[in-house]
Amino acid sequence: MIKVFVYGTLKPGEENYTKYCADRVIDSLPAFTMGKLYTLPQGYPAMTLGNSPVWGYMLYFADSDILAELDQLEDYHPSRQSSENLYNRRYINIFSQDHTNTTPGRPQRIGEVWAYLMEEKLVHQLGGTLQDDGLWSASKQ
User: Residue 17: which CATH number?
Assistant: First the structure.
């Protein structure tokens, strides 16, 4: 089973979800991670490492081929230097948005899943604007 955290155009209801995910997702779970979320003038978001909540979904896939397709979409090539990729795929910790199973002040950790992050230097080169609420939607842009 492949698990991927999505926070932008791959989220349910967003532009790339139907094309890449809808008919392949086994399950989805609202989730968040810690990072920094930016809106890019190109019409999509970027997440970097950081300490603020970034809201999205954990998507479950049965077919590992999904990673190759998402790598292509996100312009990630494992053989390139990280600075040469648009995004870099890495494991990150994610947490449940379900507060019923959570100790106050301590979110429930779901585990490590794949996510696509951008280097902060590139975010600034592309003109990224910090999204303070940690929630991106094409309809907000």
Answer: 3.10.490.10
